[in-house]
Amino acid sequence: MEQDLYKVKIFEVEETAKNVHRFRVERPEGYNFIPGQSTFIYLEGCDKREFSFSNSEKDFLEFNIKSYLGGVTEKIGKLKPGDFFEIGKPFGIKAYHGNGVFIAGGTGITPYLGMIHSISPEEAKKNILIYSVHREEDIISKNELEKLFGKIVFVLTKENKKGYEHGRINKELLQKFINKKQEFYICGPSEFVKAMRAILFELGVEKAYVW
Fold first, then answer.
1. What pLDDT is recorded for position 209?
2. For every one of its 211 residues, what pLDDT tens digit does the chain have, with 9 covering 90 and above?
3. Collapsing DSSP states into helix, strand and coil, what is residue 173?
4. DSSP state of 210
5. pLDDT of residue 1
6. Which CATH number describes the domain made up of 100-209?
7. 55: exposed, middle or buried (C-beta count within 10 Å: 0-12, 13-18, 19+)?
8. How far is CA 98 from CA 115, 119, 178, 198, 209, in A?
9. Is there a shared CATH topology between the 2-87 domain and the 100-209 domain?
10. For the chain, percent helix, then strand, then coil, each to nearest 5?
11. Class of 2-87 per CATH?
12. Which of 82, 130, 148, 179 lies in the 20 to 30 Å Cα band around 173?
């Protein structure tokens, strides 16, 4: 409903990966969210789309949005500082439950940025990130991630480069990082999430530790 929408002004746009831009926008008064949550973004003449907050700061909101041809993301990708869009109320239940392994596919990294920023640098360094993208150029906020997480494994599905895992995240890779009593966070396309959960359960990780 209209009373649940907030018009926000963009004050910073930065490219963080190929076809991905970080938008920093003003934060409406009284607008509160939990790092890891999402909201809907509305543009006139377009369908609403869900995007995760990628920050935890109190004085602005941040989104990392990948632009695809056609639809709302292409139009969002053309926005500049000084432009506006509307957002809805925050929703979702993703939250930090303790240190462990973060498993991300593509833009599934975005809620993790907010979650990891919400904890101390010392706690952040206790976490491992396993991040799958097509190519090196698709890694969102690579330098920032390397500063935040204690260990990172980048997995490239369509490129074979030194220093990176190649192929898909599989049982053999995840097995190297299994501690059955630690937390496992999974975010990405629905089929990716389903596949990662299946592997973890096969490796004996209890459902209570998989988010």
1. 66
2. 345 899 999 999 999 999 999 999 999 999 999 888 999 999 988 889 999 999 987 889 999 999 988 778 999 999 999 999 999 999 987 778 888 999 999 999 999 999 999 999 999 999 999 999 999 999 999 999 999 999 999 999 999 999 899 999 999 999 888 776 788 999 999 999 999 999 999 988 877 667 7
3. helix
4. B
5. 39
6. 3.40.50.80
7. buried
8. 11, 10, 15, 21, 10
9. no
10. 25, 30, 45
11. mainly beta
12. 148
Q: Which two tokens stand for residue 147?
A: 């500063």
- The CB density around residue 38, as the number of other CB atoms within 10 Å, is 20
Measuring CA to CA, which residue among 210, 181, 182 is closest to residue 196? 210
Query: E strands within 27-182?
Result: 38-42, 49-52, 60-66, 84-87, 100-105, 128-133, 151-156, 165-166
Per-residue CA distances from 162 to 38, 133, 144, 198 (Å):
35, 15, 20, 29
* Rounded Cα–Cα distance for residues 127 and 93 (Å): 20
Q: List the structure tokens of 107.
A: 């833009």
Judged on CB neighbours under 10 Å (0-12, 13-18, 19+), 51 is buried
Q: What are the tokens at 161? A: 């480069």
**Tokens found for residue 196:** 């990662």
Domain coordinates in residue numbering, the chain: 2-87, 100-209
